[in-house]
Amino acid sequence: MEPPNPARLYTAAVGALLVVLGIVGFFYDASFGSLDHYEEALGGLQVNGWINLFYVATGAIGVLVAGASSRGYALAVGLVYTGLAIVGWGSGWLFMAIGVLGLAAALGTPRTRSKSRKLKPRAQPARKRA
Fold first, then answer.
1. 121 in a domain, yes or no?
2. Within a domain: 17
3. Does residue 122 belong to any structural domain of this protein?
4. Of 39, 74, 110, 116, whose CB neighbour count within 10 A is largest?
5. What's this model's pTM, rounded to 2 decimal places?
């Protein structure tokens, strides 16, 4: 049994972390007001209803696809979270860490190409001679 690749580890770990952060965030602030109104929780983590939903949704997707398309998830989440950190939405330090680690995991995992199987020609039924 070979060890899991970096993207698969990232997808499972970050997916679970984001689900937990989203659920915990609802205990601090569950209001769905404007996006720029948020509460600080757990040492600087920005939370409100929208950000919590974002954490739970992206985390749940990660948990669901951890075995199937982890490289694509790591790349997509890496790009989205890095972009959001650059523009200043959400917890900058957390979003940047999740984004950069996602990009590193995606780039550190080789693409898997489906191995084309050579099909054996079917045996032709014997033809009756007249």
1. no
2. yes
3. no
4. 74
5. 0.80
For residue 97, what are the domain limits?
Answer: 6-107
> Model confidence over 101-118: pLDDT tens digits?
999 999 999 887 655 555
Single-letter residue type at 66: A
Q: Residue 88, by phi and psi: left (phi above 0), alpha (psi -120 to 50) or beta?
A: left
Token reading at 59:
């985390």
DSSP 60-120: HHHHHHTTTSHHHHHHHHHHHHHHHHHHT-S-HHHHHHHHHHHHHHHHTS----PPPPPPP
Using alpha carbons, select from 51, 108, 53, 52 the residue that is nearest to residue 75: 108
Tens-digit pLDDT profile for residues 22-70: 999 999 888 888 777 778 887 778 888 998 999 999 999 999 999 889 9
Structural domain contains residue 80: yes
- Domains in the chain, number: 1
